[in-house]
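Below is a filled-in request sheet from our internal design queue. Each sheet records the structural input a requester submitted and the sequence that came back. We keep these sheets so that new team members can see what a complete request looks like end to end.

REQUESTER: design group, bay 2
PRIORITY: normal
MODE: inverse folding
CHAIN LENGTH: 253
BACKBONE (tokenized):
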């Protein structure tokens, strides 16, 4: 017996989370309502990548950010330049991805917390101008935290967040018409609006709701959706809350 769980996060964001569900009694209904689309090569991207030597550090806040960065480096044949810089990764999956591209990367702690990375930069005195590949309107705390420490940061926008394509959305709607999930994961405040708009027929009186953090819970409650469990703002904590809901194996005599 498995638990049917609806997740609407972009594939790139939920990659590790989905991998962690392998072997667990979960029937995952992963219907992304978000997708990331690379920006075309523009003068800002080209000029920034052509002056890589101006940066003391390159900070990769996620594997997703690193992927779009690598794509643009390959377009300009600039991978060699990036390999000569100090590349800092927020977590192990991001560091592993960079290593696959033969870019040596350092990450301070396995937990992937911004404070650990900032403490490392202070400890090794890497306080010069930092390049931070990122997306348009994808809220990330790390650049602001670095600026608070007077570390100059240049955010390089490489991709944008979009909604699902119409044909994908219709396919997702068709699936959920036949199978209503037992649990819905709201990983962000944005996911509340997108899920309600895409799947208006979900019956929250019959569904267990897990919220990503307090801000998501507040938004859900304002929308009249009761929250059963609340995570602590990370994918790891969301997994922990979901595991509490999973069916337990029967203990035979």
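RETURNED SEQUENCE:
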């Amino acid at each position: 017996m498995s638990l049917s769980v609806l997740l609407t996060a972009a594939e790139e964001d939920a990659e590790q989370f989905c991998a962690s569900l392998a072997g667990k009694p979960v029937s995952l209904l992963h219907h992304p309502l978000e997708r990331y689309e690379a920006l075309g090569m523009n003068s800002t991207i080209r000029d920034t990548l052509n002056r890589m030597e101006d940066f003391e550090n390159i900070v990769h806040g996620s594997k997703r950010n690193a992927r779009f960065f690598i794509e643009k480096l390959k377009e300009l044949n600039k991978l060699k330049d990036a390999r000569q810089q100090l590349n800092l990764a927020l977590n192990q999956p991001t560091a592993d991805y960079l290593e696959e591209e033969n870019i040596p990367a350092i990450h301070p702690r396995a937990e992937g917390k911004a404070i650990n990375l900032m403490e490392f930069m202070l400890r090794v005195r890497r306080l010069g101008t930092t390049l931070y590949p990122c997306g348009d309107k994808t809220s990330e705390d790390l650049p602001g935290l670095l600026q608070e420490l007077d570390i100059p940061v240049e955010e390089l926008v490489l991709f944008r967040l979009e909604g699902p394509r119409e044909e994908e959305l219709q396919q997702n709607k068709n699936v959920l018409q036949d199978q209503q999930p037992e649990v819905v994961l709201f990983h962000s405040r944005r996911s509340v609006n997108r899920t309600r708009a895409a799947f208006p027929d979900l019956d929250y009186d019959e569904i267990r709701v897990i919220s990503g953090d307090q801000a998501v819970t507040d938004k859900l409650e304002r929308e009249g959706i009761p929250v059963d469990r609340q995570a602590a703002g990370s994918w790891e904590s969301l997994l922990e809350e979901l595991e509490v809901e999973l069916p337990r194996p029967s203990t035979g005599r």
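SHEET NOTES:
- The chain is about 40% helix and 20% strand.
- The chain has two domains: 3-34+164-245, 39-160.
FILED BY: M.R.
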